[in-house]
Amino acid sequence: MINLLFLKTGWIQKERVVVEESPVDSLEVRKMRIFNRLNWLGLLTGIFLPITGLLNNDELPLIAWIVACSPAFISGAVLIFNFYQKSITALMIYFTCYPVLSTMVYAADLDLGIELFFILYGVLSVFFLPKLWQAIFCGAIAALCYIVVYVLKRDYTTELSNLNYPFFIGNHLLALFFIFYALYLIKKENTGYQAELIQFNERLQAQKKLVEQQSAQLSDLNTLKNKLFSVIAHDLRTPMYALKNLFRNIEQYDLPAEEVKMMIPDINQEMQFTTNLMENLLQWAKSQLQSAATHPEELNMALLTQEVVGLVRLQASSKSIEVRNELKKEELVWADKDMTQMVLRNLISNALKFTPENGLVEIGSRELDSHIEIYVKDNGKGMSPETLEKLEENSFFTTQGTNNEAGTGIGLMLCREYLHRNGGWLSIHSQLGEGSEFRFTLPKHFHPTGGTGRVAPVG
Hints:
- A hairpin with a 5-residue loop joins strand 8 (399-400) and strand 9.
- The longest helix has 89 residues, at 165-253.
- The protein is α+β, with helices and mostly antiparallel strands.
- The chain has helices spanning 26-55, 62-83, 87-107, 116-128, 132-152, 160-163, 165-253, 257-288, 301-311, 313-317, 337-353, 385-392, 410-421; strands at residues 110-111, 158-159, 296-300, 322-325, 332-336, 360-367, 371-378, 399-400, 406-407, 426-430, 436-443.
- The protein has a 5-stranded mixed beta sheet with strand order 4-6-7-11-10. A two-stranded parallel ribbon has the order 1-2.
- It contains 13 helices and 11 strands.
């Protein structure tokens, strides 16, 4: 009967995990989970054990009844200390009081065959107690109690083996069972802890990779910002100063109307470049902030191209360039109208810029499996391999058109991004002195994933 008080080491029960005065890591939380389970069982054992003895009318010494009730007091006190986050105190009470009270049973000249539980206390003290001196102290108490009751003294007045031999054997089997069962719980919790460590390490690696990607993106954006401000400082300042000088000369020198009129075309050309650059910069900034949501719809590319040609009519007529729209009316694509119009305007304006007077800019299409390919072809001066390489890298650089019109490459970068968002891609084919052909594709039907297109290399 009294041996039942040691069943506290076996029963598993769910309860709230109590933490120490200082924050504990996951392994310490797991240890306290096992420890609290053991003490809940000890509390119940200390309640039911005396009741069982009374019902069986056992005539036992007073010390036996005290020991029988002790689990309720010891485990109850341990749980209370744990509740108030005094786990170290609770652990020390557990690993000192239980071995001492168990020894008191033998001190009353009773041999109940529970000496193997001293080994269990020693093993558990090494696992549960956080500091080395605590584990040594409690382990020494358990070892000393074992030596006193089983090694130094072997003869007892009352021996359970003589009164109830099967019960005596059962005590030893229970002790062995709970030793292995406690070790199993420890191994299980350690395995779970290692699995958590692996998962935590994987999360750390994923976060590290994300941070590295964000750092790389930030570095690229910073480089892009520096190039962008360089372009702004160089290419926006010139036309602004030209306009400023014109107005200053008009104000100071009272220039005649004929002379002012002669200056206006050059100023107008500079301001046209500035306007286009500003619009591209604003569109690019908007796209980088990801506030420009894509709203795809069915577009008639022939009609949309005709609208864009009307917008650049003055630019074309100033150089007597023919813009030929050969798109068929049935050429339908699924894309965002504003983004597609921006792509067309940039490509056609770029073709006009690098096409000499009396040249030709041709706009046509080719049908692919799931996309429509639109091309803008000119018979201008073409591009060198070095220029194509810079365009491939989305580099900012200033180039001069046939009438000294400036270009920076920002428009092409914006075209690539907008096409990518609409499920298309851009490719460039050019040879120096033989003109250029810009090709871009858009899906024929709704593209649910949006920007999954690729950016084709230039050629």
